[in-house]
Amino acid sequence: MLLLMIILLHSTSALSPFDIIKNIYNFYTENPPFPEAFQKDDRAIKRSYDFIIIGAGSGGSVVANRLTENPNWNVLLLEAGKEEIFLTDFPLLAPAMHITAYNWGYKTEPRPKNHDGTGGYCLSMINGRCNWPRGKAVGGTSVINFMIHSRGSKNDYDKWQDDGNIGWSYKDVYPYFKKSEKAYFRKKEKGINDTIYGKNGYLDVTTSPWTSKIRNYFLKSGEEIGYSIKDCNEENPIGFCQTKVNLRLGRRVSASKAFIKPIRHRNNFYLSKYSRVTKIIINPITKMAIGVEFLKNGIIHFVKAKKEIILSAGSLNSPQILMLSGIGPKKHLENLDINVIEDLPVGYNLQDHVSMSALTFLVNDSVTIVEARIASNYKNTLDYFSNGSGPFTVPAGAEALAFINTKNYFNKFNNNDNEMNNLVDNDSNDNLVDNEKEEPDVELVFGVGSMAGDSSGSIRSIFGLSDDWYKQVFHGYEGEDAFSIVPILLHPKSRGRVSLRSSNPFDYPIFEANYYDDEEDLQTIVRGIKMAIKVASTKAFKRYNTTLLPVKFPGCKNMSFNSDEYWSCVARQISSTLGHFVGTCKMGPKKFGGVVDERLKVYGINKLRIVDASIMPTLVSGHTNSPTYMIGEKASDMIKQDWS
Q1: How does pLDDT run across 140-149, given as a tens digit for each residue?
Q2: Total-model pTM
Q3: Which of 223, 241, 298, 390 is the most exposed place for a label (fewest CB within 10 A)?
Q4: Mind telling me the catalytic residues?
């Protein structure tokens, strides 16, 4: 297998690794070497189970693992997707998985500019629609995400509790983060605090075994502008840090590998793949969830839940299933001729970490990841397969992170937001940022590659950017060494919505992102862009003659380059996502728009609970996969308490 893969990856110079991976994926799925392996966990479907879990993602996988610890309970886990294959293991090639059947392939509704030329988002994307990746696999989105392990801040969870969610403060959830984790670090490095992690859980937490020459300059730039190098999974993430990831021997650790694989031998665990849930059956009189209807192999099945149904289909699919089942906004369901069982604000409160992913910095040395160079180097491939090392082990190239409060930073140094040159030249760091008092509003993700090296089109295809857009921006710079710094809006005030397109369960829902509806969000992302430019302009990066790509983006060419107006325009043109969708089945008091209570039970419905990122009332200051594992752990204990 090793020799075959090396030959395939280097069989032709005309194809990039991403193209070859895609071709191998298509061949492998059409001609599986061991067809029986794809069905080995599917046992005869029984008429009833104690617990039925809908969705084998990060939340559902944890719950399946923990509930089957009780040998007296039998548990059915339903998943619409299929098993992982070895190609999903490649951390660097995670973007290639977004263009396979492991992704649902969702897109947002277009939002063009207003009549006065203002507003809109995803304007440079094909047909004005952003791609929203969601995993369709045993393991859910953890099979196609970028594997970053990030918890958020203490204040995030304390605010959840302050908003009426008793038992969800930081001190309450912290033990559940540690319960999942199996952290290990190869050596003592600056910015790693191994005392804050769990050591005995199922989920591997570590750092990439390979480091680029340029990563440490990003960390040093943080010190230069007044931040400390730290572990961003501490109570307050403010600072610069190396990325913590879910890898094992340089390969992806998904929810499936971490939580499902270890329990496949349990006699009380049943996994049914290729099982598309169409609705939850609820008695309209008693308002009790009875069972689940799903389609598998062209046949509609019905299974009964004796104790409880746990919905873990994610922030985009869980609201769809609820509404198809008669739980949702009354007027919306009535318009689609769906019998309303419980009137709840399902699908509202949608939040996402919107970013601007095309910020590119050219360098004068071969210190970044460029597709053509990866494709021509046998050693990289050999290192990966034989030792689990080399650049293939860096999750989508994301090597380091920074969490900053741009508003406070700009105010502190009295920077004029309209004078970028003054900002870049300001080397003052007389006073370090007060980590204890600030809360981040922007995250910066340092990528050791950029779109300049995206010869295959894999990266731009993730975001839905056209080849024509790419040519306009990167013509003359294709294949050049460059890195990226992606600014991310951590706490958007804008809210989107998920709604049904029809009562047909196979019609994709309507996704309204509503990015930048609140003007303050736009102001914050602009400050984030300018902060990224400041970081790249520090003395730390001068040895590489780091230069911001000197090209105006389509749609913004009539504006002054580097001005606030220009970057506001760019943010609306390139409104990219990290796939951190939350809030559509909000946890909170019912009078404040809650769909579930603090024990994650759906209001007004008996024996139905939701366990996924959709219950998060607000976004955390970090990535959402680790918090979803935490939610699964905490929910499992609550379920055990209720049924013990």
Answers
A1: 999 999 999 9
A2: 0.93
A3: 298
A4: 580, 623
